[in-house]
Specification:
By secondary structure, the chain is mainly alpha-helical. The chain is built from 16 helices and no strands. Helix content is 73%, strand content 0%.
Length: 353
């Protein structure tokens, strides 16, 4: 093994030890979602202190495959029959995206002093990887894009438990699943088949969000065919939280606040603004009687789909409702962001080019 290889192995081992310690610490103080927030918090702390941390991308992918399978298995014939009742609240998603863009883009461009491509794709509430890639292809700053989206996701993940417990009075102590030993073996095999085959098929066709959407689609088919009646077991869902928490935490490795103070401050400002927009849409959804408070918050919070899925499970929210809204947001942003960016260039910047 090369020196570089040993260095990577040591970094991975150290990262997992830090994540495990964070999980145990969060568990000891009875913090919410210890398998998610424990590794996320401890890895973030040591990354900011300058330690070189490294996760395992394959494990992060498998964690998202597990969540995608859990979502698909939750889409039952009974849930499908309720989809027409979601159409009114789903119609708020384009308005929500537009409002965040209209607030976030000018702020990041004028106040944050970012170039227009970076400001635009940083303001779009889509998936981190997709928006960073779109931004890079448009000439944006990859580091700034990554940081702004990561801070947005982290901010929502940190704030959400306080909003849910203090604002809505719900507990986050529901088990994420049933132990594997109590589940039927054949259905466990079918869940595994749905997750792995869905992931690889979606990846083959270059589907965005392949690790989540592919397993979700296949598991949904299995559920609607009445082949499965369970979600992935508790052990796999806890492991998924753990590796996803590591994945978010290690993203901050190498962050230097002195060098990137302007970007970080811009990201924090944008986080506040996008949060206020989200609260406005949540209030509107409640005012119109479209959804309950907890479901509205989880469905419209500008966080990551994986993290919001976990929270929906542990608070006992309507998982199908929450996921449907996040998927709609991601699909609309991915399909429309490049078109909107082109329109902005033509309307407002063509005279400066």
């Amino acid at each position: 093994m090369s020196t570089q290889g040993r260095s990577h192995t040591q970094q991975i081992a150290l990262t997992f030890l830090i994540a495990a310690a964070g999980t145990l610490g969060f568990w000891a103080v009875e913090g919410p979602l210890p398998f998610l927030f424990g590794p996320l918090g401890s890895c973030l702390l040591f990354a900011l202190l300058g330690l070189q941390l490294r996760g395992l991308p394959l494990l992060s992918k498998l964690g998202r495959v597990t969540l995608g399978t859990a979502v698909g298995a939750s889409i039952t014939p009974a849930l499908v029959s309720e989809l027409p009742t979601m159409l009114a609240s789903l119609a708020l998603i384009p308005l929500y995206i537009l409002a965040i863009a209209l607030v976030g883009f000018p702020f990041l461009y004028r106040v944050g002093k970012l170039d227009k491509a970076t400001a635009f794709y940083a303001a779009m509430p889509g998936g981190l990887q997709d928006m960073v890639q779109f931004g890079i292809e448009s000439g944006g700053n990859a580091r700034a894009l990554s940081l702004i989206h990561a801070i947005r996701l982290l901010g929502v993940v940190v704030a959400a438990p306080f909003v849910l417990t203090l604002g809505f009075g719900v507990s986050m102590d529901r088990p994420v699943g049933i132990p594997a030993a109590e589940l039927p073996g054949l259905e466990l095999i079918l869940l595994l088949l749905a997750g792995l085959s869905g992931w690889k098929i979606a990846e083959h066709f270059n589907m965005f969000g392949a690790t989540v959407l592919g397993p979700m689609i296949v598991a949904t088919v299995f559920s609607l065919l009445d082949w499965i009646h369970i979600r992935p077991p508790q052990e796999s869902l806890l492991a998924a939280q753990f590796v996803i928490g590591i994945g978010v935490g290690v993203f901050y490795t190498g962050l230097n606040f002195n060098e990137l103070k302007g970007i970080v401050l811009a990201a924090l400002g944008y986080l506040i603004l996008s949060g206020l927009v989200a609260l406005g849409v949540i209030w509107l959804a409640g005012l119109l009687g479209l959804t309950q408070g907890v479901e509205a918050f989880l469905a419209f919070a500008p966080g990551g789909q994986a993290e919001m899925t976990i929270m929906a499970i542990v608070v006992g929210a309507d998982l199908g409702f929450v996921v449907a809204h996040h998927l709609s947001r991601l699909v609309i942003v991915i399909l429309c962001a490049p078109i909107i960016m082109g329109a902005i260039n033509r309307l407002f910047f063509s005279q400066h080019s």
